Amino acid sequence: MTDNNRGIGEAVVRREDSRFLQGRGQYTDDMNLAGQLFACIVRSQHAHATINSIDGSAAMAMDGVVSVLTHEDFAAYGGVPCGWGVNNKDGSPMAEPKHPILAEGVARHVGDPVAVVIAESPIIARNAAEHVQVSYSELPAVVSMQQALDASAKPIHGDTESNLCFDWELGDREAVDQAIAGAHHVTKLELINNRLVPNAMEPRCAIGDYNSATGDHTLYTTSQNPHVIRLLMGAFVLQIPEHKLRVVSPDVGGGFGSKIYHYAEEAIVTVAAMKLGKPVKWTSDRTEAFISDAHGRDHITTVELALDREGNFLALRESTHANMGAYLSTFAPAVPTYLHSTLLAGQYRTPVIYAEVKAVFTNTVVVDAYRGAGRPEASYLVERVVETAAREMGIDPVELRRKNFIKSFPHDTPVALTYDSGDYAATLDQAMIASDYAGFEARRAEAKQRGKLRGIGIACYVEACGVAPSNIAGALGARAGLYEAATIRVNPTGSISVLTGSHSHGQGHETTFSQLVADKLGIDYDSIDVVHGDTNRIPFGMGTYGSRSLAVGGTAIVNAVDKIIAKGKKIAAHLLEASEADIEFENGEFRVAGTDKMKPFAEIALTAYVPHNFPLEELEPGLEETAFYDPKNFTFPAGTYVCEVEIDPDTGTTEIVSFHASDDFGRIINPMIVEGQVHGGLVQGIGQALLEGCVYDTDSGQLISGSYMDYTMPRADDVPSFSVDTCVTECTHNPLGVKGCGEAGAIGAPPAVMNAIIDALSDYNVRHLDMPATPNKIWSIIHKASAAAA
Amino acid sequence: MSVSVVMTVNGEVVAKHVEDRTLLVEFLREHLRLTGTHVGCDTSQCGACVVHANGKSLKSCTALAVQMDGAEITTIEGLANGDVLHPMQEAFRQNHGLQCGFCTPGMVMSAVDLVNENPDPSETEIREWLEGNICRCTGYHNIVKSISAGAKAMREGDPT
Lengths: 790, 160
Description:
The complex is a heterodimer.
Chain A: H1 17-21, E1 37-43, E2 49-55, H2 57-60, E3 65-69, E4 106-107, E5 113-119, H3 122-129, E6 133-138, H4 145-149, E7 164-171, H5 173-181, E8 185-193, E9 205-211, E10 216-221, H6 226-237, E11 245-248, H7 264-276, E12 280-283, H8 286-292, E13 299-307, E14 313-325, E15 352-361, H9 375-393, H10 397-404, E16 411-412, E17 418-419, H11 424-434, H12 440-449, E18 453-462, H13 470-475, E19 484-490, E20 496-500, H14 509-521, E21 528-531, H15 549-575, E22 583-586, E23 589-592, E24 598-600, H16 601-609, E25 624-629, E26 638-648, E27 653-664, H17 671-691, E28 723-726, H18 744-760, H19 775-789
Parallel strand pairs in A: 1-12, 10-11, 14-15, 20-21, 27-28
Antiparallel strand pairs in A: 1-5, 2-4, 2-6, 3-5, 7-15, 8-13, 9-10, 9-12, 13-14, 16-17, 18-26, 19-20, 19-25, 22-23, 23-24, 26-27
Chain B: E1 2-9, E2 12-19, H1 24-31, E3 50-53, E4 56-59, E5 72-74, H2 87-94, H3 104-117, H4 123-129, H5 141-156
Parallel strand pairs in B: 1-5
Antiparallel strand pairs in B: 1-2, 3-4, 3-5
Helix pairs in contact in B: 2-5, 3-5
């Protein structure tokens, strides 16, 4: 019977929550294996140093210490691989220095793993790590990208010519140069997209286990994509055949990109478990997370927008430096290139665009995808430069955007993408009404009477989800496929196991995917279970990142369900003695069209597994189907965000007094979960705009913002409640019409907030302000202006 | 040095010998295997480890197990009444007040203590109370909504 209340479009309460709310989730650190040992990693306290010697004898002499491992113990293995190669302007490949599991003679950032102590308890391991004597000779550190590219700077890697990783370009340079040279107006901005630390609340953890009887390895790890880890670590690092390596990612406490990558610690515990014959567990503490999890953003950009007299966009030119950190993390090269510059058209018809991106090695933690991954940086520079152009030309910023909107689809941008669908005016109009944009000046005047500076800012973002298709991504440097896999296993009594390659670390897949299958098969939601996160239980899947789970993973599920229905029709035709072409499937029933002859889904399932009356000569028994789905294109969610702020001129403090988001995510399966994703993304975006900034000391390379005492995480009293709404244009190339919602908030919020702040400071002649817009920065602007006026 | 500790955890008396430096959160997670209480930082900022000690919320990373000798501790595992969720847990479930679930035990325990102190908190009071609990997933919107709803349910019914 159809589960009308828990199908597509219903705000079904999450089935995951019951276990999480009672402390019954199982995160990696909640597991202890029998006989388990504990690893503590000795990390470099220097940003750049030669390692002269490592003496583990004092540590080894301590009670309970089992082993001290250094680079030599990993000499037989490969380094941590990079999963995306980018070419230089001249077609030559990027510099790709070796990334050893443990530092090999040189430490290249504070936190670079140097040695590993393995002991019988975590505290013994930690104490013993203090007794590992590492002799370092400090080397000059290049901390900023400017330092790294200075002619006098030495390459931080012995196997590269300089600290330039690649110098890449996209678009028609000549056409853009000409358009800019002949334009009525050119707005130029220099801006920084501040470096962020992802800070999933669950610190990373990994447990290696080795069965010497079978030669099977198991890695339990906090990953967003266990099969990707199995492939990267098995094939490229440790040379473990994939059939002998199982990777399990159980409940994972948030990822935001930082748990996509294969990290050295995963290889360390896997090797240690094999060497020592006992399970080995490593759990990061927060301090360690700050200096070992991949960071995000960190771009320095010059952007120019050329306009004609009427405000039509003529061209956009971007020149960006992107920090890679000390090594290349898994997807790092793709982030400032194919996930970034391809989005520079935004929602606009800009006819020509050119981008050049220089990626730079520095003595800092690796930088890779963090919620939005390249698109927040694109949205930020586009929406900041459009806003600035509107102010310079005296055109209403809303009308300037509207005038330049892409209005017909499909639309080919000059930066390689084809937007399949959208209605940018619809989300803009909805946001204008919901935020009472028209009534703003009255609110500004009222705030002024209270001594507050009130400003309003909008941002119209577009983003690209579900990187695809694999052959194009491959041509652009991806070293993996970007499909997703799903198996629908119908059990003999009609219940269903959905085995998905997607991975949920907060997104609620167990609920959404069950809704999807319940709706498609017309069966009870409670008879469906979703299995994910274990390479031994699920088909080879690529995991969850880039807001791909529903658009790519959900489509794989739908395609597998379609195969189940197709086979079910054959079985039903046999049982009902009808032609297969006459069988219709609806609401969980196989019916001979136009008759009351019918077989329920459960009977078809049972027949498939008890095939006594079954067309065995034509059909295999059983009812289980797998689909691999490789999308034809990205999906393109888009929307308009409106932020209103009030600044206290006495303290420089910004309060977000209202925030409205209008998004187009295509068709929505569970609106409650989608709203939650938007809220979370918005606060990460607001955090970037107002609070968060990863700061290194530019001389020593020490991470200054290395704890929650120093790195400002958004807290409940930093943000408001939100107004969110959606408009729907369906994606045209997946059967669900879905687009993806996971990153939108973090992509659209930063420019909306910053545009509002610039608007609030309009009396102070501020053209641009870099994020985070801290009270100190704002107070200084106001104070200097006041002092100058006095 | 090993010391003996006796306390009541979720209504059961437990007696253990532990290293004197053992934190309450380690005691709960590793000695009692109550892994619902989480560790999200090392500076007592994130609040993932909040439990109740003698009825008041406490970051269990800030206390040694020995300091809690004789105390009554309630963890997230002890909040529900059998299969019936505490009204605050139910409110989080109904209002999508959690995503990855990692900060959730601390949020719920902190929220229950708030409502015990202030049965009808305003949005501002809820947000200020949560100063010591960090969530990276929800943007707090639905946590605030959950706590409002949970407070109402606790006012109206038996908080079990």
